[in-house]
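Pilot study result, target chain (244 residues):
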Amino acid sequence: MRLRLTVAYDGTQFSGWQSQAHGRAVQDALESAFRLLCGERVVVHGAGRTDSGVHAEGQSAHVDVPDDRLPDDAWLPAINAHIPPGVRVMRLKKAAPDFHARFSARGKIYRYSIWNGPVMPPLLINRVWHVPGKLDAGLLRSACEAFTGRHDFAAFCARGSKAPEPTTRTVSAIRLARKGPALAIAFEGEGFLYKMVRMLVASAIRCASGRISHDEIRLRLENAGPRTNHVAPAGGLCLVRVLY
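Predicted structure:
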């Protein structure tokens, strides 16, 4: 039986989503719990990776479990009873046999949170990026508009250890929301490269603070400028939802 999971977690407590040798990833915590419940090792397949320190409200995953192990309505409370409090399965239901958390997905929504005030409330530590300086709203919006659409984002991603992957992606929408010093930037797209959202945020903020120009962003999107080496902190980023 295939189960589809919606998972939320506090990224500060884990070394990212993907299983690690030291066993401190979100995937490790879920697989350990399912092993106890199923009596055998099972693999939990996520819709994608999140880095250490990045949070999730709606990570998606699937797992195959024995049909007769537990009643259908017992899986959700059982799995949550066996995982650390920093991660929770928010929803769980049967899925079609051909559903795949990663390959069935058509996009993702991420939200990046910023506190744009002189003093940041301490309860927001590891939840937002504190940017105390003045930001030009028009420049910020202009930078986000430049990133929207289909572009080669080679200048806005970190190089991984694996073979290079195609760097052209479609960002279908970037939405800005502000309430006082609280600023949220939501990114919706078909998929994002390694650290891409955090690099886009860093560049947009640098543009809005007058450190780089809109033309510099445009040149980098055209691969005519240098790669950016600025990355917004992991704690401000949250995977909001996986789109199917």
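One observation from the pilot: The chain has two domains: 2-94, 107-243. A full batch analysis is planned for the follow-on phase.
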